[in-house]
Description:
Low-confidence stretches: 32-41
Radius of gyration: 15 Å
Amino acid sequence: xxxxxxxxxxxxxxxxxxxxxxxxxxxxxxxxxxxxxxxxxxxxxxxxxxxxxxxxxxxxxxxxxxxxxxxxxxxxxxxxxxxxxxxxxxxxxxxxxxxxxxxxxxxxxxxxxxxxxxxxxxxxxxxxxxxxxxxxxxxxxxxxxxxxxxxxxxx
Length: 155
């Protein structure tokens, strides 16, 4: 895979296939959820079908089925503001980019891909660009730093 910064062409951001996020919720209570840590919200959703997205830089994002995410890169308040099923795929992609970014991707790029994904899914401009995106830019550094620390320590 090419480093993220080498993509230069401008394309219209779009979902490849579908932007429908097929997921199942994990509560930590059943036997199938025992591999979760004591924090039952750590990875509370599992992707049941793969997702593909092409961002405005022409970079192809792909997430395999089975990816677990929580959708809370901006803290526990942000999901209340999103509360739109059309945003689920973009939120999953954002969690993937925070946890395991492509080579050369910066936090601002991951946040931009979230904004582009939400708009491509049909989430309204006001909710995306005036509420969610500024919240992620203001508070997402905490999750980004935590994931970089875990990646550098080998955990």
